[in-house]
Amino acid sequence: LEQRSCLRFRRRQPDDGESYVRVIGNEDSGCWSWVGYMNNEFQELHLNPSAPESGCFRLATIMHEFLHALGFYHQQSASDRDEFVDILFENVQEGTQNNFYIYTADVVTDFGVRYDYGSVMHYGPYSFSKNGLPTIVPKDPKAVIGQRVALSEKDFSKLNHMYGCLKKG
């Protein structure tokens, strides 16, 4: 993130008065973060250390969770998502439908960057499936969704717009 944006990360010092991201390794917490700044002190980012098979410690998953902490919603929550994907709610596990909510453009802004199938913030086609059938189907049959390798070019573009880093984007 630092190489492609103006964001800088450092270890927090006890006398820092600034807000910060608190990375928590809790065996019961899974991997997740609230979206954006939630209080006046710190933002929690949870990474379960006892479940390496969950992928919490893959670099792109960590970056995915940091992007949540920095204010990113999932790509499939974008206001224009219905132009790009179909959500098959009949295949979604009960209690996980919130992962597929669509938000208005005033909540989830695209910063002028079009929908990104390749975003590290996009869920895969079988995410939260209750029956092994797809939950998200791209309208472009060549599109690949759900990659957890690296941030996409569009991810960096949005990040740089969001934080005023355009000189490095």
How would you describe this protein?
Its cofactor is Zn(2+). GO terms for molecular function: metalloendopeptidase activity; zinc ion binding. Residues 1-166 form the Peptidase M12A domain. With 169 residues, the protein is low in regular secondary structure. The protein has a single domain (2-162), classed as 3-Layer(aba) Sandwich (Collagenase (Catalytic Domain)). The chain is 12% helix and 11% strand. It contains 2 helices and 5 strands, in the order βββαββα. A 3-stranded mixed sheet has the order 1-3-2, covered by helices on one side. Strand 2 and strand 3 (42-46) form a beta hairpin. The longest helix is centred in the middle third of the chain and has 11 residues, at 59-69.
What's the gist of this structure?
By secondary structure, the chain is mostly loops. It has a single domain (2-162), classed as Collagenase (Catalytic Domain).
Blueprint (SSEs and pairs):
Elements lengths: L19 E5 L7 E2 L8 E5 L12 H11 L15 E3 L48 E3 L14 H10 L7
Parallel strand pairs: 1-3
Antiparallel strand pairs: 2-3, 4-5
Beta content comes to 5-15%
Shape: globular
Radius of gyration of CA atoms, rounded to a whole number:
16 Å
- According to CATH, the fold-level topology is Collagenase (Catalytic Domain)
Order of helices and strands: EEEHEEH
InterPro entries: Astacin-like_dom (IPR034035), MetalloPept_cat_dom_sf (IPR024079), Peptidase_M12A (IPR001506), Peptidase_Metallo (IPR006026)
Protein name: Metalloendopeptidase
Pfam families: Astacin
Keywords: Hydrolase, Metal-binding, Metalloprotease, Protease, Zinc
